[in-house]
Structure formats: C-alpha cells, structure tokens
Specification:
Layout: E1 16-17, E2 24-25, H1 30-34, E3 36-37, E4 48-49
Antiparallel strand pairs: 1-2, 3-4
The chain binds zinc ion (ZN) (3 copies).
C-alpha cells in the first residue's frame, strides 16, 4: 500500500461567470443563464436569459424586472 503523492484531477463542475449577471453557475443553471427568453415588448431585455435584470424603470417583464 504505497500511496503516491500524485495530485488527482478534480473533475468537479466548473463554474463559469455569466456574461449577463456575473454570477458563476454550474451545469444545472446553464439554461437559466444562456437560454434566451422572449419576454415581450421591452426591447432592452428581449432575448436575454432569465437571470438578466432589466434596469429599465418601466420594464414589465416578470422574468427580467429588476427586483431591488
Ligand atoms: Zn446569469
Ligand atoms: Zn424582459
Ligand atoms: Zn425589460
């Protein structure tokens, strides 16, 4: 039983920073951060992923409306 000190490669999920919200997300949240959402009349946040927070004051999107 001779354990070598070779470092094992950690094949854990790599967290990637989102280009919209800046948060690191795992494979389970890829759709939330990358999948475009056609929300409606708001041209500022249309086709943005669900994690995107619209800064527009009059944004009426349920998914993009900024919740302060
Ligand atoms: Zn995101
Ligand atoms: Zn929207
Ligand atoms: Zn919006």
């Amino acid at each position: 039983m001779n354990q070598s000190s070779v470092p094992q490669q950690d094949n854990g999920p790599r967290l990637l920073p989102c280009q919209y919200c800046g948060e690191a997300y795992g494979p389970e949240d890829v759709a939330r951060h990358t999948e475009p959402v056609r929300c409606g009349p708001c041209i500022t946040c249309v086709d943005k992923p669900a994690c995107f927070s619209c800064r527009l004051m009059y944004c009426v999107c349920d998914v993009h409306r900024y919740r302060g």
